[in-house]
Structures are given as C-alpha cells and as structure tokens.
Write a structure and sequence with these properties.
This protein is an alpha/beta fold. It contains 5 helices and 13 strands. The strands form 3 sheets. A 6-stranded mixed beta sheet has the order 5-6-7-8-12-11, with no helix packed on it. It has a 5-stranded mixed beta sheet with strand order 1-13-2-3-4, with no helix packed on it. Strands 9-10 form a two-stranded antiparallel sheet.
Amino acid sequence: MREWLWLAIILGIVGAFFAYDMIKNLQTERNDVSISINDRDVKPVSLSIAVIGDTHLTERREALAAFRALLLEIKASKPDLIIFVGDYITRPNRVDNISKHREAVINSLKLVDPIPRAAVLGNYESWSGADKWLAEFERLGVDVLENEVTILETAKGPVCIRGLGDKFTKRFRYVDYPTGCKELSKLTITHDPAGAFDRSVTGLVIAGHTHCGQVSLPYIGPLWVPSDAPSLAHCGLYQDSIRTVFVTSGVGTSILPLRFGTQSQWDFISLESFE
C-alpha cells in the first residue's frame, strides 16, 4: 500500500511538471539572440531584427487582439527591421470566412509601421490559396516576397531582402540577388528552413515552420519535425561554412493546441556582420 502511495505522489509531481511546462510554453516570450557573421558577401553592419512566425491565428476576436498587442510590443522594442516568416492563420477548414480573416490578419501587420518589414507566405497560406494571399497583400499595400528580392531602407542603411517560396509546399524557386545588391547587406527569408539548404543559398537565412518540434521530450527531442532541413537546423541557430540559418520557434501551435519543451516566442536578433 505504501509503495502505491509513493508511486501516486511521484506521478502527481511529474504530471504537475508537465502541466506547468505546457502552460508556460504557450505564453509568448521575447527571445534575445546574438548572431555574428564573417561573410565577405555581407556588408559589415550592426542590425537588430525582430522575427515573428507561425502565429496560426483563429478567427476569435481574442486571438486577433492578442496578435495586435504582440505587434505593438515588437514595435516598442524598436528593431531596425521586422521579419514575418509565414503561417499567419490556423487550418483553413477551421475558418468560417477565410476572406475576412485574411484581410484582418494582413491589415494587422501595418501596426508595426513605420519600421521596415518583410514577409513571406507559409504552408497554411498555400493551403488556403497562395495566389489569393498574394493578391490581398498587394491590395492592402503590404509587401510580401515570393521568390523575389527587394531593398528596404533601415535606420542602419539599405538591406537587400530575398524572400524565397515555401519549400514544404513546393513554392520554392531560387532567385539570385541582383547586381544592385552587390555592395549592400543581404538577408534571405523563407518559411521552411529546408529552403536554406538549396545548393545555391548562402549567407544569412531566417525561417520558421518547425515550431522547434512543438513537442520535444527530454533526452529524446522533437517527436516530429515537418522539414527536410538537417536536424541541427530545425530550431535556433545553425552555422556552417557557407550559411547561417536562424529558425524561430514561432508563436502558435498546429494540429495540437499545446507545446512541451518548446517555447512560444518572437525573436530579437542582434546581428553583427564583419569582413
């Protein structure tokens, strides 16, 4: 009888720990990251970049209000540049009015103005009509990049942003930087980090998509990560001889409304590049 009592106590403690971790991990936090790059293709610069991705917003008024409050929090941190890496909404079959929801989400991104921003689509936008998302971004005057390059003026000078399509939904197509970017700082953004490992992609890449596994068990790691990127590049910072990849854990959840061992977060990157 005493053994059963001790077992019940231990199981209760373990269960409480798991419950605490899951509740805490759903509360979005700021994650500060320092990245140093020694890359002759990147002009020396000190740049702060806010990254937000995988919000998976439902139509609930509370969800959109929380998202807008988060955008204002990010704006108040005064980054030089804000990057959105896709998966703005939840599963399309859980949305009653996708057109209205799409408009509300895209309009919300304007809250960070006048801070320069760049955005790409994720797999959930592909699954709910990528062309419709691209058209709505254009109609509402919010720039989004789909296998193209733009130059944004920041407080630290111009930055060439290359937005590559989502590899997971086969919208990825490699594009090179134009000659006008030769002397400028460069940054690639994409949704699925697998796009960072296309043989032609080099330099700094920022991605999302993985949720860092969303459920990651001690000593085991993530149960499943939907990406063909190398496992070391499924979460956080990865560097090799030709590229530096940062993968955000993201804000929201997909499939299951929980996180374990992975934190809901937006990221504030302090970038130092030098030759």
